[in-house]
Amino acid sequence: MHESDFMKQATQHHGHGVDDSVHLPAPTPWPMVLSLGIALMITGMVTHWVISLLGLVLTLRSMFGWFVAVLPHDHISVPVQPESITISSSRATRIVVPVAEEHRKQLPLETFSITAGIKGGIVGGIAMVIPAALYGLLRYHSVWYAVNLLAAGGFVSWAGESNAFMAQFHLLGLLAALGIHSFTTVLVGLLYGAMLPMFPKKPILTAGFVAPLLWTGILYSALGVISPILNARIDWLWFIPSQIAFGLVCGFIVNLQVKVRTTQFQSLPFSIRAGIHSDRSHKKDYAQ
Fold it and tell me: Per the record, which residues fall in region Disordered (predicted)?
């Protein structure tokens, strides 16, 4: 087959006809309404059945409207006017052409191991307990209030309990809070181990303040759905310092660990891995 014939068939296959038009799906707003209806039905499962009923009505109406909007013609032809666009830049461009046997770039060249994140999460979790226990001691004269408050997220029967009950020692609450706290802090510690190499300039600032404040903002908007009991009793002015304490200690511990060489570092020449030449001079040789 001739090359021009092949290009002509490929163009017509992708929607370009002899009239210089392209076929696109017919525009309709009903898919967005359908997604909103499904979201409301799911939200009503944890809030109120009226919201689920509203979502069901929107879902059924959007399904009917979608079918009516696209049938019997589900595509429209949009005229296409070809034009040549010249891309220019005033910046000097330097193209580095790697050799054929060089691996694809993987950044960073060094990262922390999984054990580094686990260590940081454990020590950071211990540091986080200090502000929480201090809050319970000053506010309710008991170090067990914060422990029972965290455990109450898993016990629906504790929703109506008094502050005096929450300030008492409960073995079941201690075990539940220990499991929830350990699982959460280890997961966040693993996240810190993967995140800190991406911020080599100010890792402690990122781990100690930016990440805890971002995490606190997400919890503030979603805790009412995740744990209404905890959301009704939590004191955010004390919760934020405890998150910052965790972030500073966890980031510090993770940053102390020895980094692991990635595959990209192992693929570099021996002179660079041994420190004789820098990676920058290696790229300069390729560019020349």
Answer: 1-22
One domain for residues 120 and 73: no
Can you give the pTM of this predicted structure?
0.51
Residue closest to 135 by CA, chosen among 237, 225, 56 = 237
- List beta partners, residue 24: 76
The Cα 288–Cα 80 span in angstroms is 43
- Cα–Cα dist 64/58, whole Å: 10
Residue 61 sits in the same domain as residue 195: no
Residue 157 lies in a domain: yes
Residue 157 and residue 59 share a domain: no
Classified as helix, coil or strand, 11 is helix
Give the number of C-alpha atoms closer than 13 A to the C-alpha of residue 33, restricted to the C-beta side.
15
- For residue 52, what is the domain's CATH number? 1.10.287
Q: Is 81 helix (H, G, I), strand (E, B) or coil?
A: coil
Q: Are residues 140 and 64 in the same domain?
A: no
Please state, in angstroms and rounded to a whole number, the distance separating the CA atoms of residues 116 and 97. Answer: 36
Residue 61 exposure: Cα atoms within 13 Å on the Cβ side:
11
The rounded radius of gyration (Å) of the Cα atoms in the chain is 29
The tally of domains found in the chain comes to 2
Neighbours of 157 (CB within 10 A): 7
Looking at residue 280, its amino acid is R
Ramachandran angles phi, psi of 82, nearest 5°: -65, 140
**Residue of 133, 171, 135 whose CA lies nearest to 151:** 171
Residue with tokens 């560019």: 287
In a domain, 46, yes or no: yes
> From CA 259, how far away is CA 165, in angstroms rounded?
47
pLDDT in tens, 145-185: 988 888 887 777 787 788 889 889 999 889 988 998 899 88
